[in-house]
Design goal:
By secondary structure, this protein is an alpha/beta fold. The chain has 3 domains: about 90 residues, no CATH class; about 375 residues, 3-Layer(aba) Sandwich (Rossmann fold); about 325 residues, Rossmann fold. The chain is built from 33 helices and 25 strands. The strands form 6 sheets. Strands 1, 4, 7, 8, 11, 12, 13, 14, 18 and 19 form a 10-stranded mixed β-sheet that branches. Strands 22-21-20-23-24-25 form a 6-stranded parallel β-sheet, sandwiched between helices. Strand 9 and strand 10 form a beta hairpin. Helix 7 runs antiparallel to helix 8 and helix 21 packs across helix 32. The structure holds N-[(biphenyl-4-yloxy)acetyl]-beta-D-glucopyranosylamine. It comes from Salana multivorans. GO terms for molecular function: glycogen phosphorylase activity; pyridoxal phosphate binding. Belongs to the glycogen phosphorylase family. It catalyses: [(1->4)-alpha-D-glucosyl](n) + phosphate = [(1->4)-alpha-D-glucosyl](n-1) + alpha-D-glucose 1-phosphate.
């Protein structure tokens, strides 16, 4: 009886209504008549929680009893998206709730729109973590996700005079119905101070004496599996001041200082850093990293593992998966726990630690590789720095043993970088400590081995592997695209939702005229739905007869939003110069979504330019409404779920060799958009699967990029020799999009002409030629729809369920599922 959880409420409409009204009355403290939409949303969320609770308790209990190996996913970011729709889907309650609410005069869709999404991530890396924990729950793999409960998630983007302005994202302000704080499981996390040695019955040991500490409070979130009665846990940590911290100061009579120090401690989980590729070496960021990783390891070792667990068996019980280098400080932390706290022998502890971590790399850009100055690290985490030094000494000794005294190689491979400043290379530490290192798409993994870490690949045969990213079909197909989901299910049954390769069974229907008509009607329906959302949100309209051409992703020069702008300017120029009659232009609506890191000046200028080009093009009567540029602010998961299903064309146009994988590319293909893309990241695998004839490829390949780089790239040569390109750039430079002011976009133009790190100009001609082919192809709607259907049918590979199977087989070796 003590371990049997109370069953959830009855799943009848009546049962639901009773429970909902109870929550409204007793939880929110209002009557139905008094209640606001927010009251109703909160009561509904809590009601849905009740249905999940028994399964959650049961899943946790069984995981504890079974003693099987599980995964601890360590990620500084989880870009979850709204929870309500997914919880209803996972419990099959959508209809019951819809009917029940209707009987009370409440519209479910209205309550769903009330939810503020937890935006606890920047982009691809954070969304990937959210997809992975969804898949693990659905597949019944024991997993705890560990991360940070930021009080402010990714900033809310607004535009003022066409330029980005950041607003704080106070996602908790209206209530947080999905979280369960567990203050009794709080952990103390130390910082600063010094280390000292002491004699422990004849053995000399080291201990760390921190100067200050903060309390880490866990907040648990349910991660429901799809219709399988399982609910895994996401545990996010919040920093609060320790009582001792402020009491000491308070007792010393300094009330103000006591309050200030409290704020200081609580700053650690205050806000998500909005950079998504350029680490700045900020002290608070390192505090965040150590804070959540130390709390997670403590939680696992002291609270999740049964009492008296023999830590020599740790590798049989857990694998800590490092989502990029952000949690790598967990490596010296586990060593510190084993050696200093558990008094284990160093070699033994290192043998265990090496088996407990695996590292996923998400980038190739050199400036994105994290390094922490020895100065800062030594000040904040003195014991960890000592441990890192010893790991490095022993590692370099092994390198010497294998390769001899090759000083150049030693310097290249050292975990400690000497120039421009002494610093710890976190990717190297992760590679040395990780049992496996993986890239996130075939091309990326290959380049990682050959270009970023070749010495390590040689030193550690078999350590490097690939796991191509995936996306959850529950959120990005079933929930985001109900109409297409319905058609698919009607055609091939429901199995696809948890076995996405079954979409293959749709292939023959590409030749079925009636199926094509229904498929095309669904795309049109999704465009109207996106139109309704954009109209209500931003006052935008998407004309019914336009091709919808979408580029949504973080703003970064390597992703080349500028190339897209140059295409739009070229189409505009063709019309206004009279080269082409507006009536002969394929009508297109371009939709952009992109946030720029607050300190990334060039990215912000590019946002300004997109908005400026949009304002000019949209207002010019000569265009006759045949080109439209829409840039809804604050692109997030919620908007993605509306825009992606409406897209005809997916823009994946990064410079070859720069986008590790991309995951938006997968979401678009699965929703029946055709891709125009470079041979980069997972685009390569998408094209292989859908077939060349169903993919618009352009641009240099990675080896061609390398060759051009080696030969000496001169962007101005392309400007001088290509009149189309020259006209587009000149038009921007002329002030045509900035009220005649030539200075506004001068930095963008001169950067393109004289630097162009990501070779926009070199790929321009190829891009325009391929876009012209897109226009022609779109003219044959039957053929286009055939291709779109084949894109859906052939991209089942990109389910994050498959990614999880690959992680299990190649990296985790957790027990097989099903
Ligand atoms: C680092 C330091 C300080 C603040 C933030 C960061 C940081 C945060 C996120 C650095 C990188 C971050 O994310 C990188 C990222 O999102 N990479 C993307 O990962 C996706 C999932 O694997 C891939 O699909 C994308 O190609 C890759 O760009």
């Amino acid at each position: 009886l003590a371990t049997a959880p109370v069953a959830g409420p009855p799943t009848s409409v009546d049962g639901f209504v009773k429970e909902f009204l109870r929550e409204l009355n007793f939880g929110q403290g209002v009557t139905l008549a008094q209640s606001t939409v927010n009251d109703q949303y909160l009561a509904l969320a809590r009601t849905v929680r009740h249905y999940l609770m028994a399964r959650w308790l049961e899943t946790s209990r069984r995981q504890f009893e079974q003693q099987t190996k599980g995964v601890a996913y360590l990620s500084a970011e989880y870009l979850l998206g709204r929870q309500l729709g997914n919880a209803l889907l996972a419990t099959d309650l959508t209809e019951v709730v819809e009917d029940g609410l209707r009987s009370l005069g409440i519209d479910l869709a209205t309550l769903r729109s009330q939810e503020v999404e937890p935006g606890l991530g920047n982009g691809g890396l954070g969304r990937l973590a959210a997809c992975f924990i969804d898949s693990l729950a659905t597949m019944g793999v024991p997993c705890i996700g560990y991360g940070i409960r930021y009080e402010y998630g990714i900033f809310r983007q607004t535009f003022v005079d066409d330029q980005q302005v950041e607003q704080p994202d106070g996602w908790l302000a209206l209530g947080a119905p999905w979280e369960f704080p567990h203050p009794e499981q709080a952990q103390l996390i130390g910082f600063g101070g010094h280390t000292e040695t002491y004699d422990d019955e004849g053995v000399t040991r080291t201990r760390w004496v921190p100067a200050w500490d903060v309390k880490a409070l866990p907040y648990n979130y349910m991660v429901p599996g799809y219709l399988n009665g399982r609910v895994n846990t996401l545990r996010l940590w919040r920093a609060v001041a320790t009582d001792a911290f402020d009491l000491k100061i308070f007792n010393a009579g300094d009330f103000e200082e006591a309050v200030r120090s409290q704020t200081f401690a609580e700053n650690i989980s205050k806000v998500l850093y909005p950079e998504d590729s350029t680490p700045q070496g900020k002290e608070l960021r390192l505090q965040q990293q150590y804070f959540f990783v130390a709390a997670s390891i403590k939680n696992f070792v002291y609270d999740v593992l049964p009492e008296g667990f023999d830590l020599h068996e740790l590798p049989e019980r857990i694998i800590f998966q490092l989502n990029d280098t952000h949690p790598v400080i967990g490596v010296p932390e586990l060593m510190r726990v084993l050696v200093d706290e558990k008094k284990m022998d160093w070699d033994e502890a290192w043998a265990i630690t090496k088996q407990c971590f695996a590292y996923t790399c998400h980038t190739l850009l050199p400036e994105a590789l994290e390094v922490w100055s020895v100065d800062l690290l030594g000040r904040l985490l003195p014991r960890h720095l000592e441990i890192i030094y010893r790991i490095n000494d022993e590692f370099l000794a092994e390198v010497r043993e294998k390769f001899g005294d090759d000083e150049l190689r030693i310097r290249r491979m050292s975990i400690i970088q000497e120039y421009p400043a002494r610093a710890v290379r976190m990717a190297y530490l992760a590679t040395v400590a990780g049992a496996k290192v993986n890239g996130v798409a075939e091309l990326h993994s290959q380049l990682l081995r050959e270009k970023v870490l070749p010495d390590f690949d040689e030193f550690y045969p078999g350590k490097f592997t690939n796991v191509t990213n995936g996306v959850t079909p529950r959120r990005f197909l079933r929930l985001a695209n109900p109409a297409l989901s319905e058609l698919i299910t009607e055609t091939i049954g429901v199995g696809w939702i948890t076995d996405l390769e079954r979409l293959r069974e749709l292939e023959p229907y590409a030749e079925d005229e009636e199926f094509r008509a229904r498929f095309a009607a669904i795309k049109a329906h999704n465009k109207r739905r996106a139109n309704a959302v954009l109209l209500e949100r931003d006052g935008f309209t998407v004309p019914d007869d336009h091709m919808v051409d979408v580029m949504v992703k973080r703003l970064h020069e390597y992703k080349r939003q500028l190339l897209k702008v140059l295409h739009i300017v070229t189409l505009y120029d063709r019309i206004v110069s009279g080269e082409v009659a507006a009536a002969d232009v394929t009508p297109r609506t371009f939709i952009f979504g992109a946030k720029a890191a607050a300190g990334y000046a060039m990215a912000k200028r590019i946002i300004h330019l997109i908005n400026a080009v949009g304002s000019t093009v949209n207002a010019d009567p000569r265009v006759e409404g045949r080109l439209k540029v829409l840039f809804p602010p604050n692109y997030n998961v919620t908007l993605a779920e509306k825009v992606i299903p409406a897209a005809d064309l997916s823009e994946q146009i990064s410079l070859a060799g720069k986008e590790a994988s991309g995951t938006g590319n997968m979401k678009f293909a699965l929703n029946g958009a055709l891709t125009i893309g470079t041979d980069d990241g997972a685009n390569v695998e998408i094209r292989e699967l859908v077939g060349d004839e169903n993919f618009f490829l352009f641009g240099m390949s990675e080896p061609e990029v390398q060759a051009l780089q080696d030969a000496g790239y001169r962007p101005s040569a392309f400007y001088e020799s290509d009149p189309t390109l020259r006209r587009a750039i000149d038009l921007i430079a002329s002030g045509a999009f900035s009220g005649g002011d030539r200075s506004t976009f001068e930095p963008v133009v001169s950067n393109l002409l004289h630097q162009d790190r990501f070779m926009v100009l070199a790929d321009f001609a190829s891009y325009i030629a391929e876009q012209d082919r897109v226009d022609v192809a779109y003219g044959d709607q039957e053929q286009w729809t055939r291709s779109a259907i084949l894109n859906v049918a052939r991209t089942g590979f990109f389910s994050s369920d498959r990614s999880m199977v690959d992680y299990i087989d190649r990296i985790w070796h957790t027990p097989p599922v099903r």
